[in-house]
Amino acid sequence: TRAVTYLIADGITPSNVGRGYVVRRLLRRVIMKGRLLGIKDTFTPTVAAVAVALSGACDPGVGLAASRIADVLAAEEAAFSATLERGSKQLEEMLASCTTSGARLLGGKQAF
């Protein structure tokens, strides 16, 4: 999260291209690991606040961008959490339909 915090402080925001894509991938990895640890609520702004606090002496610009960092992280985490929720629901529905139809495999067309 520290790397993402510094990148956002430098003006790079999550996107689908270039440096923004790297930020998005790093952030989504952090969010997935948090979910695997059982964290259900938004947590990246809190973790970033610790990174900002520890970075104050070496890079004051990070402290100046703290509120923007928290906003970007919260928005991206909310969007990714919604995507995960939708995907999980669709997967559960597909698996349930396989179970009720007696199929043992989920077809590639359904999965993709």
Short description:
This protein is mainly α and 112 residues long.
Give a description of the structure.
The mean pLDDT is 91. The relative contact order is 0.13. Helix 2 packs across helix 5 and helix 3 runs antiparallel to helix 5. The longest helix is centred in the last third of the chain and has 36 residues. This protein is mostly helical. The chain is elongated and about 60 Å long. It is built from six helices and no strands.
Low-confidence runs (pLDDT<50, min 5 residues)? Answer: none
Per DSSP E runs of 2 or more residues, the count of β-strands stands at 0
Major beta-sheet overview: none
* Number of helical segments with 4 or more residues: 6
Shape descriptor reads elongated
- State the order of secondary-structure elements, H for helix, E for strand: HHHHHH
